[in-house]
Hints:
Rossmann fold
Amino acid sequence: MTGNLLLVCSYPKSGNTWVRFVFEALRRGPHRAISINDMGTGLYAFWRRALFDELAPVNASELLMDEIDDLLPQVYRRAAAESGDPLIVKVHDMAFRTRSGEWLYPPDSVGCAVYLVRHPFDVAVSYAHHLNISVEAAVDMMGRSEIMAPSGPRLILPLHERVGSWSGNVGSWLDQSALPLALARYEDLHADPVAGFARLAAAAGLAAATTDVARAVEAARFDRLQQEEKSSGFSGRPRSSSQFFRVGRPRSWEGALKAGLQERLVREHGDAMARLGYAADGSVLPLPC
């Protein structure tokens, strides 16, 4: 099998779309323009369902969630084997094994998994805006073992995602050793995007000179993405959100996250935060060795 799957993994609202945009710009090369509405599907949401129904032996609407999980590794293997180019896959699932013991994303088909993290203070505020819910409700979600788009007895449209809690998602990826992993903090990428994305591109097997990375980073500048969404819309924006590209910088939680919610996030996710250099006052420390 090939290792054509390039996983861009994260808990929601941690910079996944930004990283996929840069990777897609690098994959296309300097002579092909890229738009937020023409950056590839990431095999996510509707497109993951379409991929499943095309490549699995049975339509997803006939299956329960565990049954879909059992077949997804086979689907991803086929997709990787039939693709001549790297497939950039958007992932919010935890890293987990299905009932058969297989990893949901099979190691024999994955070239690299890039795992993105962001300070949970910022995640909480951004997630609240994304889902049009209160910040308190977003903090609640971050503390639960969450399944996005869960189905009842039969699936209606989207495939579910086993996102887990914020710290559960982080731990599942950092503690697994089956997939080659490159860790990136949103704050570090924001501080030095060219160096940060050059490192990630090398880990992902995307050959790129520094000038190519700088060009891709410039194309993905937040104000550019924000302006394009304003003028042309963004197909990846959920109906619950009035604006997908909202702030795009660290410490956007300031003035929006009450002290009690800060304390709760630290209480519930303190171990994972310390592991990533995320301090209780919202600052970002060097990554622990």
